[in-house]
């Protein structure tokens, strides 16, 4: 029997999603064929919920995957605007910008965990600021 007491909240949520047949592929690596089906279904006008059910994933993961594809398109072709990429993948520019902001915030959190600031470095910065203001 598996001991779930050491699972993080994310791991526990993922475990429950994988036990559900409708979301059994949640958190798993995307296959090329899934990406193709994703694009086809979205272009057919299916909702994120309907595509998610078809691919056994969550609606959130469908939206996130489309945002990642839009950002990859912009990175590949500097002539593609945010609006064009959003339109092509049926997401909003606000969705893309929110994803980028959250990604940056997560990265900063990870960096702060890995590089904690000491009180001495904060004090040194305050002294430096004070000297510049004096």
What descriptive keywords fit this protein?
single chain; 134 residues; mainly alpha; 7 helices
Write structural notes for this entry.
The chain is mainly alpha-helical and 134 residues long. It has one domain (9-133). Helices cover 69% and strands 0% of the residues. It starts with 8 loop residues before the first helix and ends with a helix. The relative contact order is 0.07. The model has no long low-confidence stretch (mean pLDDT 91).
Shape: flat
Order of SSEs: HHHHHHH
Strand portion: under 5%
**Rg on CA atoms, Å:** 21 Å
Low-confidence spans: none
Average pLDDT metric:
91
SS element count, helices: 7
Secondary structure: number of strands = 0
- The count of domains is 1
- The secondary structure category is mainly alpha
Helix fraction, binned, reads: 55-70%
* Span between termini: 66 Å
* Biggest pleated-sheet summary: none
How is this structure best summarized?
The chain contains seven helices and no strands. By secondary structure, it is mostly helical.
Question: How would you summarize the topology of this molecule?
Answer:
Elements: H1 9-19, H2 32-43, H3 48-55, H4 59-76, H5 82-88, H6 93-114, H7 119-133
